[in-house]
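Researcher: Sequence of NUDIX domain-containing protein follows. Predict its structure.
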Amino acid sequence: MQMLKFCPKCGEKTLHWDGEKKWSCTNCDYVLYHNVAGAVAVIISHRDEILLTKRNQEPGKGKLDLAGGFVDPKESAEETCVRELFEEMKIKVNISELKYLGSLPNVYLYKNIDYNTLDLFFEYEVAEKFQVQLEEKEISEAIWLKKSDLNLDEIAFDSQKAFLKNYIFSA
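Model: Prediction complete. C-alpha cells:
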C-alpha cells in the first residue's frame, strides 16, 4: 500500500498511507479510503461431506478453498453466491435455500496489495453429490471430503480455516 505516492487529485507526490485504511494528500487534503471488501464462501454439503475446490491461481494456488468470491457492486451476498457457484462450477443454486452461517474478517493478498475482506459464510445442502464443470482458470479440481478427513492446514485462507474448524466441531 505504501507504493502509492502520487495524489490522484492534484498529481503531487504528497500521498501518505496511514498503515491501515486510507491515503491522505498533504497538498490538497484529498483522502482515499481502502475500505473492506465483501466476499462470500459457500459450504456445499451432502450428509457428512463438503465440496471443496483446489485453487488454480494465487493467492493460495494449489490449496483448498470454499467456492465463492468478491461481491460485485449493487449485488447482495446471496446473489454473489449464485453467480460465483455458476461461474466457478456451473452449479445452479436456488437462492432461497442458501443458509447464512456467519462472518469473519480476512486479509487477501493479491499482487502485493493486502485487501481487508469481510468473508460471509453460507451453507448450501444438496440431496445428492454431483460432478462439477470447472472454470479451470480459477479452479483445478473439485473434491468431496468427509468433514472428519479435512486437514485445515490445506485450506488457503485463515478465515476459512477458523470458520471450518468451528463448523466441523460444532456440528
